[in-house]
């Protein structure tokens, strides 16, 4: 089962390497990984999507908490009323004459932006939850996806998950 873990860390060199080493030495797989500084550049937030049962996820969280630069580890809830998640995709699609109107229609339905046009391709930018991303990819695939880049998931709880980080 997929789980999303949010880790608040001190923004210092080597922390991402330590986290990746933790996963690889224990044989855990990272399905998605995003990292960026928070509003306070002293800290970074790392969002990790991984697979495992509850026991494995509990063990991962305990191991992450043991890393020196870790401030807080939170397993994010799966329910949409408690957590918001998004993924960004850039998708280059074959834009032959007969497909252009279909690409425009799909873009309009999903709220995707066409960010680049060439004689042979349209490049779309889209942000949504995993279900929405998979749906737009499925509709664009028959048209002819030439290239696809996915950002990895970013997620945040509806409530403040990192209260009093300086304590």
Concise structural overview:
By secondary structure, the protein is an alpha+beta fold. The protein is built from four helices and nine strands. The chain has two domains: 2-76, Alpha-Beta Plaits; 83-150, ACT-like. Chain A, domain 2 (Alpha-Beta Plaits).
Put simply, the count of helices is 4
Q: Which residue ranges are poorly predicted, with pLDDT under 50 across at least 5 consecutive positions?
A: none
The largest sheet is: 5 strands, antiparallel
Q: What is the fourth-level CATH superfamily of the largest domain? A: ACT domain
What is the ordering of alpha helices and beta strands? EHEEHEEHEEHEE
Label the CATH architecture of the largest domain: 2-Layer Sandwich
- Based on secondary structure, the structural category is alpha+beta
- CATH class of the largest domain reads Alpha Beta
Q: Count up the domains.
A: 2
CATH structural fold name of the largest domain: Alpha-Beta Plaits
Q: Please give the number of β-strands.
A: 9
Fraction of residues in H or I helices: 25-40%
Strand fraction band?
A: 35-45%
Based on Cα principal axes, name the global outline.
Answer: elongated
First and last CA, distance: 33 Å
Gyration radius from CA atoms, angstroms:
19 Å
Average pLDDT = 91
